[in-house]
Amino acid sequence: xxxxxxxxxxxxxxxxxxxxxxxxxxxxxxxxxxxxxxxxxxxxxxxxxxxxxxxxxxxxxxxxxxxxxxxxxxxxxxxxxxxxxxxxxxxxxxxxxxxxxxxxxxxxxxxxxxxxxxxxxxxxxxxxxxxxxxxxxxxxxxxxxxxxxxxxxxxxxxxxxxxxxxxxxxxxxxxxxxxxxxxxxxxxxxxxxxxxxxxxxxxxxxxxxxxxxxxxxxxxxxxxxxxxxxxxxxxxxxxxxxxxxxxxxxxxxxxxxxxxxxxxxxxxxxxxxxxxxxxxxxxxxxxxxxxxxxxxxxxxxxxxxxxxxxxxxxxxxxxxxxxxxxxxxxxxxxxxxxxxxxxxxxxxxxxxxxxxxxxxxxxxxxxxxxxxxxxxxxxxxxxxxxxxxxxxxxxxxxxxxxxxxxxxxxxxxxxxxxxxxxxxxxxxxxxxxxxxxxxxxxxxxxxxxxxxxxxxxxxxxxxxxxxxxxxxxxxxxxxxxxxxxxxxxxxxxxxxxxxxxxxxxxxxxxxxxxxxxxxxxxxxxxxxxxxxxxxxxxxxxxxxxxxxxxxxxxxxxxxxxxxxxxxxxxxxxx
Length: 574
Hints:
This protein is globular. By secondary structure, it is α/β, with parallel strands linked by helices. Helix 19 links the parallel strand 19 and strand 20. The chain has helices at 20-33, 81-87, 117-125, 131-142, 148-158, 163-186, 207-217, 232-240, 242-245, 255-267, 278-282, 285-294, 321-326, 342-359, 369-373, 439-459, 483-493, 513-517, 532-541, 559-573; strands spanning 7-16, 37-43, 50-60, 75-78, 96-99, 111-114, 203-206, 222-225, 248-251, 272-276, 298-304, 335-337, 362-368, 375-378, 464-466, 474-479, 498-503, 505-507, 521-526, 547-550. Helices cover 38% and strands 18% of the residues. Helix 4 runs parallel beside helix 6 (163-186), helix 7 packs across helix 8 (232-240) and helix 10 (255-267) packs parallel to helix 12.
């Protein structure tokens, strides 16, 4: 009998088009409602059909939730033979594999359950398409979770296809469920329940949805983007809710048009957003410079994926920090947020809009494929609801759009609100906005634009510390999507010598960070080849980085490999 102590890792694998996402969506909702702590992440190939995709769902207690990717598989449900081969490297002695033995190579697998997915699918609906509903039933049967909620879910999902399709899917579910219950008894499989009834009302959010909610909460009323994965989801979410939330949605013909449309909307007073990925953002860089010189706010979301060029378009990486940090010709201030949890994504997007408006600069939100697609519950009380301040003045005759001020912030007017002329120009300009080639005015304008950096640093988010930070000798730093994987790894190691520090804002850095780090030994964990955030810490704070733990394969860090890396550090120090 398999032993489960803290959590269970369930992986469903198959080809694109086999309905893995349907199984994931149903399981996440059903398991969460049953009182489990749940977390899901996925990996998929860049093809519409075929290939080999998988989704991992971790079950745990909501009182001690597990919310990071693990290499370990406790239960593998392979919908086709290639899925089993694709995931074989993650199968261990404790893995129970459910697959069709006649089509699979079971050699070397300690616990293999011959599962007639295709047979049941044909019996229930006369088509292999029903195999995903069979698999859903098997999983629920093994876990001894009543199938009623799954039947209701399938009815809701497939009702638009007619009663016959609904009936066939439910029949397939029932066949799988009966098989799962029988197998659990025969194989002595007992899955412990970590149920917590008080948490049933938590929301299930992926990173994309969290960013979309944050944009709405932050007052976004205009989005212009050209679709590019994995950033497209934010555009789709806002388009879905555009009418209800009074948002103008523009699917531009290209990324150049998208950012220029966003700047035009912002000039008119809108809170504007563009969303893209690294390759698409390359085309936006002149627009970023335009934002910098005309001091017009814009929020730019970059869903990172591995480059260069097309790279691995459906995989994950944190390779675009330098791109956001140095994008655009010339010099001008900016801010960069990198949320690592759904709550941070909602708050980060709200802060991005307010920072862009308050300081009249371009502001970036960096995410990645792993973060955008990962799903976890969120207690509504975790969500910060910030005030939305419109930093716009009513203009008077003689209004100066670029008036020189002690803090570098000129009163921002918009056309039609007041009697003043709101003049902007991409050339260097004087206080009124008219073109100038005065060296003295150029110096004054550059100094004015950069004076706001002091205030930006003072208001920058402080990093989140955890695990006896004050006493620890070594601090392990993460940013963006690595928060939960680092948190779990350090927690499992339980060493008083190690503590974690997570950054949800990566530029500019709060001045207090230097005091936080003090004389501690610093390790930086990030998903890129060179250690871009480590370089930024050295440049901005003058700190010494002891070690860089880096990964640029297109995969997220697993808890196990991070534990191995940190164990090595502890062993070396001893």
